[in-house]
Write a structure and sequence with these properties.
With 128 residues, the protein is mostly helical. The chain is 46% helix and 0% strand. It is rod-shaped, with a radius of gyration of 35 Å. It holds the Pfam family SecG.
């Protein structure tokens, strides 16, 4: 599980850096007018409008990847392993019963330190 989180964090970091870089490479809306008067955009690698389409599509793909990795990290961060209760579905603890005295011995009176019934014993591990 740790390797999966690490991989998702690396993918998220790379997609975030890619989005930042591609947004900085793109021209603003006002740059289209300057390109129409021969500022050299037609001589670029992707043509006059090819670079805008390529950069905007790549930015959209990286932004979607960033969104998906963010959701995956949120899901993995909120995931908690629930302890299994076994076949019965609930952990049931039986009360401790004192063993009966041997047949030949005299009966012994209960000491005041031992409780009379299991209901009067405070439960351990229960918050107050």
């Amino acid at each position: 599980m740790l390797y999966l989180k690490t991989l998702i964090i690396v993918v998220q970091l790379l997609s975030a850096l890619g989005v930042i870089g591609l947004v900085l490479l793109q021209h603003g809306k006002g740059a289209d007018m300057g390109a129409a008067f021969g500022s050299g955009a037609s001589g670029s690698l992707f043509g006059a409008t090819g670079s805008a389409n390529f950069l905007s599509r790549t930015t959209a793909v990286l932004a979607a990847l960033f969104f998906v990795t963010t959701l995956a990290l949120t899901y993995l961060g909120a995931y908690r392993v629930k302890p299994s209760a076994g076949v019965l579905g609930a952990a049931v603890t039986a009360p401790v019963v004192a063993s009966a005295p041997a047949a030949g011995s005299a009966p012994v009176a209960p000491s005041p330190a031992t409780p009379a019934s299991p209901a009067s014993v405070p439960a351990t591990g229960v918050p107050k």
